[in-house]
Structures are given as structure tokens and as C-alpha cells.
Predict the structure.
Amino acid sequence: MKRILSGVQPSGKPHLGNYLGAMRQHIEMQKDFEAFLFIADLHALTTVRDPELMREQTFDLAVSYLALGLDPEKTVFFKQSDLSEHAELCWIFDCITQMPFVERAHAWKDAQAKGKKEISVGLFNYPVLQAADILLYQPDLVPVGQDQKQHIEMTRDIAQNFNNIFGETFQIPEPHIEKDVAVVPGTDGQKMSKSYGNTIEIFADEKTLKKQVMGIVTDSTPVEDPKDPEKCNVFTLYKLIATEEETKALEERYKKGGWGYGDAKKLLLEKIMDHFADARKKYDELKDNKDYIYEVLEDGAKRARKVAKNTLDQAKKQIGYK
Ligand code: ADP
Ligand code: TRP
């Protein structure tokens, strides 16, 4: 059975972009793959500085995945900081990776371009830690959104470099990116992202959700006029969760005119509430069951450690530490 691995940072509330671009694939793929999935809380330390927030967001992400259908018997689901192997392998990779190679990474380049004054060594090193996360588990595929493609390419280069220096150790993984949902737009039309404040949160209370959906930016075509669905974010988002027939019906309404963006937004809101109805119910149940959530993550860490330790031991042998 082929293996997949992915991680998501606990850096805010999960949104439609996270779900469609990554979380949904993680959950669907657990049927046909041996799956490893972790909460990237070591990576989140590059931005989160409040211990309560770190705990809360980590817990919330765990609850969200379980509510959306992640089966912890099938998927090894764990928290990155429960294993020391990730940071250890990261150091090893640091020592064989050149600075200019890491300087090419988007996150670092963006931070520099925005003139950010404080860029931590951790943020700079982010892709190297990600390479360690991935290679420890020797996965075949890494399911992620388009924005992570570069990180997976860097991971492949780092693996090849290690193998060249110390001998065949790491399997070279492939990214798995679903085209239709590679970049889900946010309420302002840019890529939906926690850091842009343009998200639609899948587990927000109804009032917040309504505010987010109604806040989607549209053009000023009058209600009576026909509208181009392909140019409207409301339609793009609807299409991603509705059936083909529902999408066709909406497309016709756009083209006919006499129907406003406000109506389309209402329809989208209904669709979201409907699509996530079961998950939202389960989320409410699970969030009060703290012991269960922590047990799942502890058990996941135990199972993950077996695989991670094995790979790290092998790398240490190749280096001459053992
Ligand atoms: P954010 O940009 O909101 O901080 P993360 O970096 O935590 O999101 O991303 C978690 C996962 O969700 C990654 O695999 C990422 O590629 C995917 N993802 C995030 N935003 C989008 C989006 N707008 N469209 C598609 N995939 C996305
Ligand atoms: N960088 C990823 C993100 O922001 C999170 C992540 C960390 C990850 N380690 C990973 C994703 C390993 C896939 C595999 O979304």
C-alpha cells in the first residue's frame, strides 16, 4: 500500500481553502493509502507566541479533522512537537543545505519583499524542517495545495543531496495537488488564507459565517443585467462544493439576469451549511471531549515515532553517528 503524509499548521481556524485544497484529500485518501497526518505546531512557532492560543488552535485543528471524518484508526494522526525526531533530522539537513538554496523559498522572499523587520532563523529554515517532516516517513505522495509545491520540490532536492553524500536513505516523494482546488479564492478574490483575513471558516457560528459569505467582493453589475459566472467568486466557491446540476442551474441564473449577487451569496451560505451540517454537529460534540482528543494524538505520536525513529536511525548510521 502506498503511503501519504501531510501536515497543517495550527495557526488559525480551518477555512474553505484548507478544506478543499488539502483537508478533504487527506480524509478521502485514508481509504486507499497508509496515511500519516500531523499538526505542524513546530512550524506554527514561527508566528504564534501565546501559549493559550497555541493550545487552543492545536486542539481546534484536531477536533476539526476528526469532525470532518478523519479516522484515527486508519490515519496516524499526531502532533509534531510530540516527536523530537523532526527537529533532529532538520539539524542534519541544515548542515548539508546551502543558504542560497533556502533563500529561494517563497515564504522568506515574501517576508523580505514586505520589508518585515523581524525574520526569525526558524522562518528562514521553515522549508528544511518541512523536508525533515516529510522524509522521516518515507511517503510516496504529499497531498497539499498549490502554495506548498515549492516546499515539496525543495524536499526532493534535500533528499537527493543527502542520498548523494551519504548513500541511498530517503525515498523521493511526489506532491499530490488537485487542479480544480489548487488555489481557492478568498472573500476578496486573492488566495484564501488565514494571513489575509479573507477566509470562510467551516466551523464558525452561523452569524460569523453569514458575515463572511455576505462580505465576498463582487462587481457592480446591476441586479437586472446578465452576469458572467466565471468572473464571480461566489460562483467559483459554489461550484467547488455543489453538484454539477446545482452548478448548471446557478450558471443559468447568472446568465439570465434579474438576479443579484446577494441572492447568489444566500445560496452559497445555504450550500455551505448543508455541506458541513454533519461535520458541524460532530465538531460540537467532540470539542467537549478533551480527553478523547488528547488520547488520539498521544496514540498517534506513539505509532508515528516507530516509523520516524527507524528512518532517523538509518540516517545516523549513514552519517557515522552509529
Ligand atoms: P493558510 O494560508 O490559511 O495559513 P496553511 O498554510 O495552514 O493555510 O495551509 C494548510 C493547507 O491548506 C496547505 O496544504 C495549503 O496548501 C492548503 N491551502 C491553504 N489555503 C488554500 C487555498 N486558498 N486554496 C487551496 N489550498 C489551500
Ligand atoms: N508548510 C505547510 C503549510 O503551511 C505545513 C507543513 C509543515 C507541511 N510540514 C509539512 C505540509 C509537511 C506537508 C508536509 O501548509
User: Anything to note?
Assistant: The mean pLDDT is 95. Residues 6-9, 40, 43, 130, 133-134, 142, 144, 148, 151 surround tryptophan (ligand 2) (CB under 6 Å). The domain at 3-183+290-319 is CATH 3.40.50.620 (Rossmann fold). DSSP finds 14 helices and five strands in the chain.
